Amino acid sequence: MHDHTPSDWPFMKMHGLGNDFVVIDTRVSAGRVTPALVQSLADRHRGVGFDQLAVISEGQDVTITFYNADGSQSAACGNATRCIAAREMALTGASKLDITVTGRGALCAVRGDDGMTSVNMGHPQLDWQDIPLAQVTDTLALPIDGTPVATGMGNPHCTFFVDDVHAIDLARRGAEMERHPLFPERTNVQFAQIIGHDHIRMRVWERGTGITLASGSSSCATAVAAARLGLTGRAVRIDLDGGTLHVEWREDGVWMSGPTAHVFDGVLTQAFLDGL
Predict the structure, then answer these.
(1) Where along the chain do its domains lie?
(2) Which of 63, 64, 167, 261 is deepest in the core (most CB within 10 A)?
(3) pLDDT at position 8
(4) Contact predicate 188/154, CB 8 Å
């Protein structure tokens, strides 16, 4: 780290519905991302602040690796994938983009005529060992108070369907459930309220980060869980604290559409890097 000049470390700040990211493009900047760097950057008072860090690297396609705010890796981050895809397609003029996500594989993004960006997040993981869970379990009815549903979207999810999402102590329940022993790799936690056959209201606790205004992979997992239970159809509108995403579980995977925002570009100073 210490032998890099500040110009080596440009970054981008982006968000999807307030689910915010720092993006480092190692195709144009030298250096190595470490857990210490991730944690320092994530500090909203002493760093930049984000829900996830996304690192773009060289590959046949655009290749992305995701990190949670606590420095741990995540195999999926739908809103960041959409944000990066929107920027890449804007730069090239393309309307479609192939993306490789570390730990998840090949994904596809499409630019819509309405200014929205869609990404195919791949097929959901529905078997207990793929999510993974710690033991043989019916993923549609976990042996936990509230009978949540488990779904894998490259990362694990635990979805509770409740009568009123605003009556839930999200900070307490989310923190408890993230580290439930049934989830050996911890889990993202969603509380979802069915508004209609194609409409869900949801709030999110993200593994390694905490409460977030939105989450793409959580939205996909909740849509899949609701469809499996017969609570909704396979195409739903999901209203999160930060705005609305549209999710459709198709034959080729789970597609998610919504707005993106590239807020600003910056450069990490050498003094900041030297302090790690």
Answers:
(1) 6-121+260-274, 149-251
(2) 64
(3) 64
(4) no
For residues 255 and 272, what is the distance between their CA atoms, to the nearest angstrom?
39
- Residues linked to residue 115 through DSSP beta bridges, in sequence order: none
DSSP state of 71: S
Tell me which amino acid residue 156 is: P
Cis amide prior to 259 (ω within 30 degrees): no
Is 182 strand, coil or helix?
coil
How far is it, in rounded angstroms, from Cα 61 to Cα 181?
A: 37
Would you say the CATH fold of 149-251 matches that of 6-121+260-274? yes
Q: Measure CA of the first residue to CA of the last residue in the chain; give whole Å.
A: 9
Tokens of 208: 């390694």
Helical (H) or strand (E) element with 274:
helix 270-274
Model pTM score: 0.93
Over pLDDT 70: what percentage of the chain? 97
* Average pLDDT over all residues of the chain: 94
Residue with tokens 């869970």: 133
Q: Using alpha carbons, select from 262, 275, 270 the residue that is nearest to residue 54.
A: 262
pLDDT digits (tens, 9 = 90+) for 45-103: 999 999 999 999 987 789 999 999 999 998 889 999 999 999 999 999 999 999 999 88
Is there a contact between 36 and 276 (Cβ–Cβ < 8 Å)?
yes
CATH architecture, range 149-251:
Roll (3.10)
Q: Is 115 exposed, middle or buried (0-12, 13-18, 19+ CB in 10 A)?
A: exposed
For domain 6-121+260-274, the CATH architecture is Roll (3.10)
Phi and psi dihedrals of 80, rounded to 5? -65, -40
